[in-house]
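Example for tutorial group B:
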C-alpha cells in the first residue's frame, strides 16, 4: 500500500438468482403463503416452424419434451402455450429447459403479442433440466405464451414444461415469494406507515429512528421446504443521503450488518441482498436496529428465493452496465429481460454505460429497449464522445428505438445520459448489431502477447526462478531470453496482423544508476525494418523501501522497462526478430512482445478546441500554458478539448473540470511529463479523458513529491477511457470522497507506486478492461483510509508482475466492493495475488466479494518480516474482519507458497469460500494463523507441495459439501 502525500452496479448487485419453482414454501404469521402453480407440458402445446416432440434425453416431465430449436429452424420454431389465470396481477413464468451446448442461449418470449428476449443458461448436459423464471403482468382470463427461436436468437435448446404461478400473498413480484413488511411482526417501535409513495402492498414499516435504536425490529416468519442457500432481498428507502445499516438476524442469531445505500428520496426504493443457508423448517428472519447500526430507513418487503446458479443475462442487459448520477437498478415493472432494468434518468448527468466488444470498426445499429410514459431525449454516448441524441417516444409497455453509431474494433463503451432534467425512463437493454465477445476473465486487449521463451532463439533461455532480486522473478512466466553477444536474437511468429510492437526488456544499469542505452535491430521475415534504442533509465531501483535509486545501497530490483515502435504492416505468420547487431552492453533480456494492428488516428469532434490553436507545438517545448488555455476555452464553449497527433510537453498537471479531453489515440497523441510532474488533475464533475498517452519522466519513487498521471477530486460523471500510462508515480489516484468514476481500457506500465488507488470514501467507481504491468506497488487498490470505500469494483482486468505488493487489494471498506473476473500473474515481493486486509484501512462493513478470478504463480515472500504470503490473502491486522467476505469461483494455480492464507492478529469471521480450486501450491493449499472461522463449500485442493491444510491456531473450518484435499 502506497502512502503518498499529494496522491492522494453503486454498481449492480446482481440479483440473478432464479427461483426453483415450488422449492420454497414460505409462511407469514399463521397463514401459509405460497404460489399456486399450474404446469403446462410442452408436448401438449402448439408446435410450429420445426419444433417437434422428442424423447431421446432423460429427466423430462410428462411424456416428452420439445426439440427442433436448431439453426435450420431459426426464425420459425415456436412452442405456444394457452394458459388461463383466475387472478389479475404479476405471475411467474417458469420455463423448464435443457441447454447442453456449454454456453448461454436465447429465445424470444411472446406474451399476448408482446416480445422480450430471454437467456437460458447452460445446463450440465442434455439430461439436466433447469428453470428460467420471469415475472409478467397478466389479467384474469386466457393468455397465449410463446417461446420462439427468433431471428436474433441463438436457440439450440430443448423445452420441457411451463409452470405458471399465481402468488396468493405478498405483492406477487419476482421469482421468489414476497412478503410485505406491514404484515410482519413489528416490535421495539417499528410501525406501519404510508406517508411516502412507491411502496408495494398496503404500506411500509417505519420507526427505525434514533429514538428506537437497539429495539426497532421487523420479523418475518419463513417456512423452508428444501434446505440450502437462499437469497434474501429487502426492499427499502433511505432518503438520508448516506448509507445506513441494520442487523440481519436469522433465528435470533446475527448474520452481520446489512448496508442500505442512500436512495434518491424517501419515495425511491432500492434493494439490499444477503445470502444465508437455511435448514428445512420454520425460521424467523428479522432486520433490527442494533446498537451498532445507523438505522433511519424504511422497510417495504422481503423476497426469499432459492440461491441457484445465476442465470447469464442476455446481450446488453442494462442491469449489468455501469450507472451513476441517480440512475439505479430496479425490477418493480414486469416484462423486462434478465434480472432488472435501469431507472432514475431524471437529473442532468444521470448515465448508464455498457462495455462491449466489436470485431471490427464499423457503423453499427444500437437498439435500446425502453419504457417511457412521456417522450424523453437522452444523449447517446459512444467511446467517451457524444454521438448524437436518441428520443424515447411516449407510449406503454417495453418498446425499442434504434440509431446508427460509429464503433471501434475491440473494447467499446456505449450508453445514454440525461443532458437535461426530465421525466424518468426505464432502460432494459442496449444492444449493438454484430457484437463480439469479451474475454471471460481478464481484459480484452487490442494486442496479442508473445512470451520470448516460447519463441525461437540462439541466445539463452533463463531458468525459471522466483527468487527476489533476480530478473526471472520479475519476468512474465518467470522466464526470459538473454541475448549477450552480437548476432544473438529471439524471434516470435505473429498469429494476427500487426504494425505496432511493445517490447519488455532489461539491460544492465550504469554505475551511477542513471541508465544506459543499447540498440537492438527489429526484423520482419529476415529484413531489418528499424533500429530501436533501449534504455535502463526508468528501470533499476535500489535500497530499502521506498527505494532511493542510490546504487551504493544495493538491493537492486525492478529491472524491466518497455518501449514501443511502429513497423510496416505485417500479416499473420510473419516472423518478428529482435537481434543484437552491435553489442554495447553485456546483455539484453527480452521478456515478451505485444503486437497489434494500430487503428487509424481518430479525428477531432466538430467544434472541438485544438491545443495547437492556443500555441501548443509537438516537440517544441513546454506546452502547459497553451493546453490550459485550450481547456478554458473549450469549457467556456461547452465543447471538447482536442489533442492532435504529436508529443506535447507539460511541466505540471493540467487542471480539468467539467470538460472533455480527447486525443487521436494512445499511439498518436502523447503528453510528456517533466520529472515527476505532468498529466491531469480533475476537480468536480463532468471530467472525461480519452484516447491518448501519458508518458511520465520519473526515474525513481518519491512519495513526498510529484504527480499522478491522472488524479482528482471527482464529484460526479468522470470517464477515463483508452489511455496509456507509463513512467509516472501512479496512473490513476482517486482522491478522498470522490464518486462516480469509471475507467475503461487503461494500459498501465512501469509506474513507481500503485497502478490505481481509490483512497478514502470513494463510492460507485470502477476500473474495468484494463491492463497493468510492473507497477511499483499494488496494481489496483481500494484504500479506506479514514472512511470507507463503498460500492466500487475492479473487474475484467489483467495484472502482471507488480514489482512490489499485491495484484489487487481491498483495505477495509463498506459494502458493495467487488474484485471480479480478473487475471493476476507473477507477483514478486510482499504480495498476494488478491488481498482482503485491514492492514491500512478502516474496519470492513457490509459485504465484500471476490469472485471469478484466476491467480497464476502468485503469492510471494515479505522479506522485511519475513513471511510467506499466499496467493489469496485474508489479513486481519489493525482491525478484525467480522463483516461478510464472499470468495467464490476462484482458480488458484501454481502459487509460490500457500494457495489461501488466513492471518493474523485479529479475529476473522463470516468468510465463505465456494467453488474455489487450488492447484499446485508451493506449500499448503490452505494455511491459517488466526482466530475465528470460515466456511468452505465445493473447495478443492490438489498437488500441494507440503500439505492440503495447515491450521495451527484453532481456526474453525466449517465444511460444507463438495470439498476435497484439505
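The residue assignment follows.
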Amino acid at each position: 500500500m502506497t502512502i503518498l502525500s499529494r496522491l492522494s452496479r453503486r454498481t449492480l448487485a446482481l440479483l440473478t438468482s432464479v427461483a426453483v419453482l415450488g422449492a420454497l414454501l414460505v409462511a407469514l404469521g399463521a397463514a401459509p403463503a405460497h404460489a399456486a402453480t399450474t404446469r403446462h407440458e410442452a408436448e401438449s402445446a402448439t408446435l410450429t416452424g420445426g419444433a417437434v416432440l422428442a424423447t431421446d434425453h432423460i429427466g423430462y416431465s410428462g411424456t416428452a419434451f420439445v426439440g427442433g430449436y436448431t439453426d435450420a429452424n431459426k426464425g420459425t420454431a415456436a412452442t405456444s402455450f394457452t394458459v388461463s389465470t383466475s387472478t389479475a396481477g404479476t405471475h411467474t413464468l417458469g420455463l423448464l429447459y435443457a441447454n447442453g451446448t456449454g454456453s448461454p442461449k436465447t429465445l424470444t418470449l411472446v406474451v399476448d403479442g408482446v416480445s422480450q428476449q430471454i437467456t437460458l443458461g447452460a445446463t450440465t448436459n442434455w439430461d439436466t433440466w433447469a428453470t428460467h423464471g420471469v415475472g409478467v403482468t397478466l389479467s384474469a382470463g386466457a393468455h397465449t405464451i410463446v417461446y420462439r427461436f427468433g431471428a436474433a436468437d441463438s436457440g439450440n435448446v430443448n423445452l420441457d414444461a411451463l409452470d405458471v404461478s399465481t402468488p396468493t400473498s405478498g405483492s406477487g413480484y419476482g421469482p421468489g415469494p414476497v412478503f410485505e413488511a406491514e404484515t410482519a411482526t413489528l416490535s421495539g417501535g417499528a410501525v406501519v406507515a404510508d406517508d411516502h409513495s412507491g411502496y408495494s402492498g398496503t404500506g411500509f414499516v417505519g420507526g427505525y429512528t434514533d429514538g428506537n435504536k437497539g429495539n426497532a425490529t421487523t420479523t418475518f416468519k419463513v417456512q423452508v421446504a428444501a434446505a440450502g442457500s437462499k437469497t434474501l432481498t429487502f426492499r427499502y428507502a433511505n432518503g438520508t443521503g448516506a448509507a445506513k445499516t441494520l442487523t440481519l438476524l436469522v433465528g435470533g442469531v446475527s448474520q452481520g450488518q446489512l448496508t442500505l445505500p442512500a436512495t434518491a428520496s424517501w419515495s425511491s426504493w432500492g434493494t439490499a441482498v444477503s445470502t444465508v443457508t437455511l435448514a428445512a423448517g420454520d425460521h424467523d428472519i428479522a432486520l433490527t436496529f442494533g446498537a451498532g447500526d445507523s438505522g433511519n430507513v424504511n422497510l417495504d418487503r422481503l423476497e426469499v428465493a432459492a440461491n441457484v446458479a445465476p442465470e447469464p443475462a442476455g446481450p446488453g442487459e442494462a442491469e449489468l452496465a455501469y450507472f451513476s448520477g441517480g440512475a439505479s437498478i430496479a425490477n418493480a415493472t414486469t416484462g423486462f429481460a434478465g434480472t432488472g432494468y435501469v431507472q432514475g434518468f431524471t437529473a442532468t448527468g444521470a448515465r448508464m454505460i455498457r462495455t462491449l466488444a466489436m470485431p471490427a470498426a464499423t457503423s453499427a445499429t444500437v437498439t435500446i429497449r425502453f419504457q417511457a410514459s412521456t417522450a424523453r431525449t437522452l444523449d447517446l454516448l459512444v467511446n467517451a464522445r457524444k454521438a448524437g441524441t436518441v428520443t424515447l417516444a411516449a407510449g406503454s409497455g417495453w418498446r425499442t428505438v434504434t440509431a446508427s453509431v460509429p464503433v471501434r474494433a475491440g473494447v467499446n463503451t456505449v450508453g445514454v445520459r440525461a443532458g437535461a432534467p426530465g421525466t424518468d425512463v426505464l432502460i432494459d437493454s442496449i444492444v449493438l448489431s454484430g457484437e463480439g465477445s469479451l474475454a471471460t476473465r481478464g481484459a480484452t486487449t487490442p494486442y496479442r502477447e508473445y512470451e520470448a521463451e516460447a519463441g525461437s532463439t540462439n541466445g539463452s533461455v533463463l531458468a525459471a526462478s522466483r527468487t527476489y532480486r533476480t530478473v526471472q522473478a520479475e519476468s512474465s512466466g518467470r522466464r526470459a531470453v538473454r541475448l549477450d553477444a552480437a548476432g544473438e536474437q529471439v524471434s516470435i511468429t505473429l498469429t494476427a496482423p500487426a504494425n505496432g510492437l511493445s517490447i519488455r526488456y532489461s539491460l544492465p544499469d550504469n554505475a551511477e544508476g542513471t541508465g544506459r542505452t543499447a540498440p537492438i535491430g527489429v526484423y520482419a521475415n529476415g529484413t531489418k525494418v528499424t533500429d530501436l534504442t533501449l534504455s535502463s533509465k526508468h528501470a533499476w531501483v535500489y535500497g530499502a523501501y521506498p527505494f532511493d535509486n542510490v546504487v551504493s545501497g544495493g538491493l537492486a530490483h525492478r529491472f524491466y522497462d518497455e518501449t514501443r515502435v511502429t513497423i510496416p504492416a505485417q500479416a499473420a505468420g510473419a516472423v518478428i526478430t529482435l537481434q543484437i547487431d552491435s553489442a554495447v552492453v553485456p546483455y539484453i533480456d527480452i521478456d515478451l512482445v505485444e503486437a497489434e494492428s494500430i487503428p487509424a488516428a481518430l479525428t477531432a469532434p466538430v467544434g472541438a478546441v485544438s491545443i495547437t490553436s492556443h500555441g501548443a507545438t509537438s516537440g517544441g517545448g513546454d506546452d502547459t500554458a497553451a493546453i490550459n488555455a485550450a481547456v478554458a476555452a473549450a469549457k467556456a464553449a461547452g465543447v471538447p478539448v482536442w489533442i492532435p497527433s504529436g508529443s506535447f510537453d507539460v511541466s505540471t498537471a493540467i487542471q480539468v473540470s467539467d470538460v472533455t479531453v480527447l486525443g487521436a489515440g494512445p499511439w498518436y497523441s502523447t503528453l510528456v511529463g517533466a520529472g515527476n510532474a505532468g498529466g491531469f488533475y480533475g476537480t468536480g464533475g463532468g471530467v472525461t479523458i480519452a484516447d491518448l498517452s501519458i508518458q511520465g519522466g520519473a526515474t525513481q519513487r518519491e512519495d513526498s513529491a510529484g504527480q499522478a498521471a491522472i488524479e482528482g477530486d471527482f464529484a460526479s460523471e468522470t470517464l477515463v477511457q483508452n489511455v496509456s500510462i507509463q513512467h509516472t508515480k501512479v496512473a490513476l489516484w482517486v482522491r478522498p470522497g470522490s464518486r462516480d468514476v469509471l475507467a475503461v481500457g487503461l494500459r498501465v506500465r512501469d509506474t513507481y507506486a500503485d497502478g490505481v488507488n481509490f483512497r478514502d470514501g470513494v463510492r460507485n467507481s470502477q476500473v474495468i478492461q484494463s491492463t497493468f504491468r510492473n507497477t511499483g506497488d499494488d496494481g489496483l487498490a481500494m484504500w479506506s483510509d479514514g472512511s470507507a470505500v463503498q460500492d466500487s469494483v475492479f473487474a475484467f482486468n489483467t495484472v502482471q508482475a507488480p514489482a512490489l505488493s499485491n495484484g489487487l487489494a481491498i483495505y477495509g471498506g463498506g459494502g458493495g466492493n467487488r474484485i471480479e473476473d480478473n487475471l493476476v500473474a507473477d507477483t514478486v515481493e510482499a504480495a498476494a495475488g488478491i488481498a482482503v486486509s485491514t492492514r491500512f484501512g478502516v474496519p470492513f462493513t457490509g459485504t465484500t466479494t471476490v469472485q471469478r478470478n484466476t491467480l497464476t504463480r502468485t503469492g510471494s515472500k515479505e522479506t522485511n518480516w519475513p513471511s510467506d504470503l499466499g496467493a489469496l490473502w485474508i489479513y486481519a491486522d489493525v482491525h478484525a474482519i467480522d463483516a461478510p467476505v464472499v470468495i467464490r469461483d476462484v482458480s488458484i494455480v501454481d502459487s509460490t507458497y500457500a494457495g489461501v492464507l488466513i492471518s493474523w492478529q485479529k479475529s476473522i469471521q463470516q468468510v465463505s469460500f465456494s467453488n474455489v480450486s487450488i492447484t499446485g501450491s508451493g506449500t499448503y493449499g490452505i494455511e491459517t494463523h488466526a482466530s475465528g472461522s470460515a466456511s468452505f463449500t465445493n473447495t478443492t485442493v490438489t498437488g500441494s507441495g507440503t500439505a492440503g491444510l495447515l491450521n495451527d491456531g484453532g481456526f474453525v473450518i466449517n465444511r460444507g459439501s463438495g470439498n476435497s484435499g484439505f
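Residues 214 and 291 are 5 Å apart (CA to CA). Compare this with the pattern of hydrophobic and polar residues in the output above.
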